[in-house]
Structure formats: structure tokens, C-alpha cells
């Protein structure tokens, strides 16, 4: 255990929490919990145009829904706050001015138009476009003259003209970046806002972050960040760039591949425990072959040594399979609570169910959850438990209702059930087994049309479970309705007419 470990998750509040960001948050959380360290949540909201309070609330809500908590950050506090970059601007200004005073950074008055023209010229000459450093050696008089013209300077970091910066990445080893391609880059824009790399380093340094676990697309930012660490004379953290998550066709994951945000998966009826389990397996390998792992087991097993070096492939089928497992194995009361909003969304249950209604809902969810993969499917599979207004499956009608003698058999079954007491699993099943034996037919010849009569479907929970949940009165009424429907089919010489 290393209680000095401090990691951070620093999302930009410009949209929903993408599964890539959720995996980064999870890996940091698991690493911190495994080592007894601390997870810091910081909101990197210096992009004032695109950042919104709504996105911030959404990110916090998504993290809490997943069960990822943080030791310092928004709504929690901590000794290194504030934890919104937009509230730390004075710190960035102070650090930037100190770098200028030490000659490690300088004011640049080049306009965007001038920079664009020079970039264009360099490309035309076959050269790499990079800043030529013309503002490096401006005198005070020259600076004042430019400011008198209304020019507001940006601040650039001085980068050595020769040599290279080496990134010591946990997964890739040493990755070198020549200073030939690292020009004097901007750390504070002319409007006074810090750039991403500068604000990120200042905050990570001042918040004493020891390990930075993030997606590999940030690797190209790291040499510039290392140069900033060196300029402000702060120790480097351990950098660990986790391989990307790719779509099944190995392209960059996007909305065209389906749901990509935590909120979307939540609304589709996936369980937080299942999504956490699945995200952990995207780029990390457990100790054995078992892939269904509780959060406790994930914390116990998680180490950086077991994180892979190749891209992880997004597989919705696997996530759905994992979700089905959790749907079947989690505590029933928890599943009921999670299923209620989905049932309400389809107007199957009232906004505030009574205790009696909740007990009925509990029985229904318990019966159907073993045959579905998501909470949304629970609602779909439960419709006939809450409404008598359903049609009969067309293929089921042809297969089960149009057989000779089926109406008479259902009438006999209905009479037996009317006499059955108590109306429980054992008694209802016995009534059907006895009747099929007396008629000299297979039990399925009564069970299948009865299922269709009670549910309108050919698949679902056990028939006798359905009967008991519906209760005797509703079971008898639905059988009578189906018998009348079947007799109507006979009168119409086999023409299927749905009620």
C-alpha cells in the first residue's frame, strides 16, 4: 500500500461522459483504491465557450451512478482547491509571470493572421511550420511600442533549440521528441486564458499528483508538459498512457457505432455494476479466466502491470451479456428499484406505486429478469402483466390456436383451474399434468396455447409462475377471451383476425 499515491481525473465539461473518459476515471479510481491512495476530481473548464454547468452536473451524476467517488474535488472539497480551473486563473497568471521574470518564458505579440501567413510560407518552402521565435528578444521599448498599438501579448515558453525531451511512459518505455518539432509554444493566450497544457501541469504540480493515467492520445502533449514541469521546477509524475478503445472495425469509436456515453447506457437499461465490470476489461486483464468480477475483486486485482499495450475493442454484445448476468444475480430489490423508472416510462405502473403494487411489481420483475438482458427489456417483457390490452402473436396463433380441438382443451383447463385451490405453483401445475394425462396428450399441447392466451406471446417465464402472479380471476378471464377468439377463427374458416 502506498498512501502517498495521488491520481486525478480531469474531464472537460463540454459534453456527456464518454465511455473512454469513464474508463480513465475507473482505472484511476481502481489504482487509487488498490494502493490506498487518493483520487482527485478536477473540472478542466478553461474552454469557457464550450464548457457548461449542465455538462458538469452530468459528469458528476454519471460518476456517482457508476459508483466512482472521489477524495478531493467538487462537492467534496480538499486542501488543494478550488477544483474548477476557471476558479484558478490567478494561480496560472502568477506562475506565468514568474516564468517571464526568470527568462524562461516571454511575451509574444504576433497576431493570429501573422502566424497563419508564416505557417503558409513555411509549408510552401517545404519546412515544418513552427514559431520562429521573433519575439524572444524584444526590448522593453519594443514591447511598449506594440502595446501602444493595442496589441495584447500571449506568453510563450522558451524551448531549447537543440536536443530532445524524453517521455518515460509506464507502458511504452522511453519515447523521444526532438526539439526541432517543439517550438516555443503558448502557455497563456492573449486573452489571459491558460492553454490546456499549462493549466494542466500547474494544477497537477500544485495538487501533488504522483501518477497520471490517461488515454494514449495525450502522449503527444506530454513532452510540452514535461518542459513546463522543468520550467516551474516541479518533480515529474509517472506517466501512463492507456491504449485507446476502438470500434469493432478498429476505427475510432464514435456515435455511429451506437451508444458511447454513460448516460446513454444508463437510459438503455444497463446496470452500473455491469458497465464498471465491462469497462475494467477494456485494456486490463484479470488474474484468471473469470470475467465477472465484483467491484471488491476489481480493486483487489487491479495493477498497472496487467494493463495491455494494444488497443481495446469495444464489444456491445459482451457488455450486454455481462449486463444480463448482473440482472439475474444482483439483489432483486435493487433490480426492482432500477426497473421502476423503465416501467413508468412505458406507462405500465403509476408514478407512486402503493406498497401492494410494489409487491406485485417485485413478483413480475423476479419472473422476467432471468430471460432479458437490460432493464428496458424487463419493461418490454412485463407488459402483459400490467395490461389486458394485448394482441396474440401471429405465428403463435397459427401454431397453437388453429389446431383442432384447442378451444375445447382450453375450456377444460379453465374449468380445472377454476376448481383449483390453493391457486399456487404446485396446484396449478398438477391440474395441467393431470388433465394432459387424462386426455392422453403431451402437456405442451395445453401449456403452449395457454401461454399464448395469458400473455399474447410464445416465450416468457414459466407458465405456472405467470398464472400465480396474474391470479386466478385474471387467468380465467384471459383464458375465456382466448377461447372466444379461437372460436371466432373457426367460424371464419381459419382467417386470422386479431382482437
TrEMBL record:
Q: Which family does it belong to?
A: Belongs to the class-I aminoacyl-tRNA synthetase family. Glutamate--tRNA ligase type 1 subfamily.
One GO BP annotation is:
glutamyl-tRNA aminoacylation
The record's top EC class is ligase
Q: Which reaction does it catalyse?
A: tRNA(Glu) + L-glutamate + ATP = L-glutamyl-tRNA(Glu) + AMP + diphosphate
- Ranges where the Glutamyl/glutaminyl-tRNA synthetase class Ib catalytic domain occurs: 5-321
Q: Where is this motif: 'HIGH' region?
A: 11-21
- Protein location: Cytoplasm
Q: How is the cofactor bound?
A: Binds 1 zinc ion per subunit.
Q: Which InterPro entries match?
A: aa-tRNA-synth_I_cd-bd, aa-tRNA-synth_I_codon-bd_sub2, aa-tRNA-synth_I_CS, aa_tRNA-synth_I_cd-bd_sf, Glu-tRNA-ligase_bac/mito, Glu-tRNA-synth_I_codon-bd_sub1, Glu/Gln-tRNA-synth, Glu/Gln-tRNA-synth_Ib_cat-dom
According to the entry, every stretch annotated as the Aminoacyl-tRNA synthetase class I anticodon-binding domain falls at 336-483
Keyword terms: Aminoacyl-tRNA synthetase, ATP-binding, Cytoplasm, Ligase, Metal-binding, Nucleotide-binding, Protein biosynthesis, Zinc
Q: What is this protein called?
A: Glutamate--tRNA ligase
Cofactor or coenzyme needed: Zn(2+)
Amino acid at each position: 500500500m502506498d498512501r502517498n499515491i495521488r491520481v486525478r481525473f480531469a474531464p472537460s465539461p463540454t459534453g456527456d461522459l464518454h465511455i473512454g473518459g469513464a474508463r480513465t476515471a475507473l482505472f484511476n479510481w481502481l489504482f487509487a483504491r488498490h494502493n490506498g491512495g487518493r483520487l482527485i476530481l478536477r473540472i478542466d473548464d478553461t474552454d469557457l465557450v464550450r464548457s457548461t454547468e449542465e455538462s458538469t452536473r452530468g459528469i458528476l451524476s454519471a460518476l456517482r451512478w457508476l459508483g466512482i467517488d472521489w477524495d478531493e474535488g467538487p462537492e467534496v472539497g480538499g486542501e488543494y482547491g478550488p477544483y474548477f480551473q476557471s476558479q484558478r486563473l490567478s494561480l496560472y497568471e502568477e506562475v506565468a509571470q514568474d516564468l517571464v521574470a526568470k527568462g524562461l518564458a516571454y511575451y509574444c505579440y504576433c497576431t493570429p493572421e501573422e502566424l497563419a501567413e508564416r505557417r503558409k510560407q513555411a509549408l510552401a518552402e517545404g519546412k515544418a511550420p513552427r514559431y520562429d521565435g521573433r519575439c524572444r528578444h524584444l526590448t522593453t521599448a519594443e514591447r511598449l511600442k506594440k502595446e501602444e498599438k493595442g496589441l495584447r501579448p500571449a506568453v510563450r515558453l522558451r524551448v531549447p533549440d537543440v536536443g530532445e525531451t524524453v517521455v518515460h511512459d509506464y507502458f511504452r518505455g522511453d519515447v523521444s521528441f526532438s526539439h526541432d518539432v517543439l517550438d516555443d509554444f503558448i502557455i497563456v493566450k492573449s486573452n489571459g486564458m491558460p492553454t490546456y497544457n499549462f493549466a494542466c501541469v500547474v494544477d497537477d504540480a500544485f495538487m501533488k499528483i504522483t501518477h497520471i493515467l490517461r488515454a494514449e492520445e495525450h502522449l503527444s502533449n506530454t513532452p510540452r508538459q514535461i518542459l513546463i514541469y522543468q520550467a516551474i521546477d516541479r518533480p515529474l509524475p509517472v506517466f501512463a498512457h492507456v491504449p485507446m478503445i476502438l470500434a469493432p472495425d478498429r476505427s475510432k469509436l464514435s456515435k455511429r457505432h451506437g451508444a458511447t456515453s454513460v448516460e446513454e447506457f444508463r437510459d438503455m437499461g444497463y446496470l452500473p455494476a455491469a458497465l464498471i465490470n465491462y469497462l475494467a476489461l477494456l485494456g486490463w486483464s484479470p488474474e484468471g479466466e473469470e470475467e465477472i468480477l465484483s467491484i471488491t475483486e476489481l480493486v483487489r486485482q487491479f495493477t498497472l502491470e496487467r494493463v495491455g499495450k494494444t488497443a481495446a475493442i469495444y464489444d456491445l454484445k459482451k457488455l450486454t451479456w455481462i449486463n444480463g448476468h448482473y440482472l439475474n444475480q444482483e439483489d432483486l430489490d435493487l433490480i426492482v428499484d432500477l426497473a421502476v423508472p423503465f416501467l413508468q416510462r412505458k406507462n405500465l405502473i403509476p408514478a407512486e406505486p402503493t406498497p401492494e403494487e410494489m409487491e406485485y411489481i417485485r413478483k413480475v420483475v423476479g419472473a422476467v429478469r432471468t430471460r432479458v438482458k437490460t432493464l428496458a427489456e424487463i419493461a418490454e417483457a412485463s407488459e402483459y402483466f400490467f395490461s389486458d390490452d394485448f394482441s396474440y402473436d401471429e405465428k403463435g396463433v397459427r401454431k397453437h390456436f388453429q389446431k383442432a380441438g384447442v378451444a375445447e382443451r382450453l375450456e377444460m383447463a379453465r374449468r380445472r383451474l377454476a376448481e383449483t385451490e390453493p391457486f399456487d405453483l404446485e396446484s396449478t401445475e398438477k391440474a395441467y399434468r393431470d388433465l394432459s394425462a387424462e386426455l392422453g396428450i403431451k402437456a405442451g399441447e395445453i401449456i403452449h396455447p395457454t401461454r399464448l392466451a395469458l400473455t399474447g406471446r410464445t416465450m416468457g417465464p414459466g407458465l405456472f409462475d405467470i398464472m400465480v402472479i396474474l391470479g386466478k380471476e385474471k387467468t380465467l378471464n384471459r383464458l375465456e377471451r382466448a377461447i372466444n377468439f379461437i372460436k371466432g377463427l373457426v367460424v371464419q374458416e381459419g382467417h386470422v383476425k386479431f382482437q
